[in-house]
Amino acid sequence: MKIIELNNISKSFGRGSDAKSVLNGISLTISQGEFVVLRGVNGSGKTTLLNIILGLLKPDSGEAKLLGRSPQEAESKASIGVVLQKVNVPKHLKVKELVNLFRSYYPNSLSVEEILNKVNLEGKHDAWGYKLSGGEEQRLYFALALAGNPKLLILDEPTRNLDEEGCTDFWHQVKSCVQEGITILMVTNNQSDWQELNHLATRSITLKDGQISEDKDINKREELAKSSEINDNKIDCLPGKINTFKSMLLKQIWAESLQFVRNPGYLLGIILFSCLIVFFPPDQTLGKLGLIFFAGINLLTFAIERLGKIIASERIEGWLKLLRITPLPPVIYLSAKIIMALSILTVNLTIVLSLGAWKIGVEQSVGQWLIMFFSLIMGIIPFAIFGLALGYLVKPKSIDSIAALSIPIALFSCGLPLPVPKFVQDLISFSPFYHYGQLAMWSAALDYDQHLWLHLLWLLWVGSIFSLVALWAYRRDQVLQ
After folding, report:
1. Would you say 171 and 23 are in contact if contact means Cβ atoms under 8 Å apart?
2. Model-level pTM?
3. Less Cβ crowding at N or C end of the chain, within 10 Å?
4. At 163, phi and psi to the nearest 5?
């Protein structure tokens, strides 16, 4: 069976006269059971070729297939495992939690014990993933690649920066995969790897000047064809089966919540910022107006700046790229982020309203407090989605500047009576901050412009646009570094 098929693949970067051709009419087939080594100097296009195979990039022309499907389909990734360069796992997840999370993405995953035994990480269940030694860290990435019981392994410079002990462990793991009949595509320029590859690999190919050349057959195993026929049905049935939406979503939310509760400094910052409401004057009317606007600004700050920075950090550290090569659908990842953000915002708003009611002396019925609470929470959803999209589009440092600019804009355009010309007022009416501000005013039984349904529909429309932007940014061809 053909595991990887590339037909006349071409890819360039840049436009016009500045365009640089990286791949030029590449055709390559890798069959079941092969161990193919891809070589090439730095900048020759090896990573670009891997990204096309994995569905992270789309070719300008030609067709790529992974297990007979488009690499962009989640089902095509249900039987592959990948070890990438330059990725980092989240700081607040343990080894067993990371492995369990990856297991939830695959239909035929191994148990945690099986996976950790395979990579010699027994006894490291409760170790923090980011605190492992260099060799142990590489074993963890190999464990994540094996989590789905793959039929294809793609290894990108897997021995780089490994010490002698780490290399010994790595090759022991690779030999076990070869014995199990797993197809392997390995990228390496490390000459020391050839001591092992001469006995394990079946083919060596070189990428140079945008073209693939076949170096030699290293160790053609006679059983390849026979093995391929025996296991064809087993391979064919795996794509198309992915875990249920509910199962993956619950695991993803659990992982997100663990990262939050294990970051006490972050939690404390949210609580202290919310407590600033105690400095507001105890006035029933002005105090109520101040309470509403402080609550809104508080929620906006978290939704845009803090949530965006979390996403941007994950992207820069390579965690997002690691997730994109799994069968995890983007909608599940984004939904888990939104649900976790709304949970944090709920805590935030509860503190603000509770302290505000005590300090300012606002007297309302329970029903009025609930209307205010749910209006502020539901109205912030489009801005939380915007924070997600922002995290995928810019670097963490840039988010501070954007957030610093957005808060004054929110205050200017939220609907407060300002001495500005009529045409400026007309422009303000298009701002989502204006519609959120009017919704907040209505929820607090304060004067507003009497167009509640218009504000709700406008926020729904803006939220839909931001959702499309966030999905596009998650799936886009190039991850910004």
Report:
1. no
2. 0.83
3. C
4. -80, 180
**Structure tokens given for 4:** 């990887």
Q: What is the pLDDT of residues 355-392, one digit of tens each?
A: 887 877 777 788 888 999 999 999 999 998 888 888 88
**Hey, is 45 helix, strand or coil?**
coil
Give the integer Cα–Cα distance in Å for 160 and 332. Answer: 33
Q: Is the pLDDT of residue 458 over 90?
A: yes
Residue 110 carries which DSSP code?
A: P
Nearest Cα neighbor of 331 from 389, 245, 256 is 245
Q: Is 7 helix (H, G, I), strand (E, B) or coil?
A: strand
Centre a 10 Å sphere on the Cβ of residue 165 and count the other Cβ atoms it contains: 11
Order of all β-strands in the sheet with 183-187: 80-83, 152-156, 183-187, 35-39, 203-208, 211-217
CA distances (Å), 214 to each of 38, 119, 246, in order? 10, 32, 45
**Within a 13 Å sphere around the CA of 458, how many CA atoms are in the beta-carbon half?**
16
DSSP string, 406-427: HHHHHHHHSS------HHHHHH
Q: Is the distance from CB of 405 to CB of 322 less than 8 angstroms? A: no
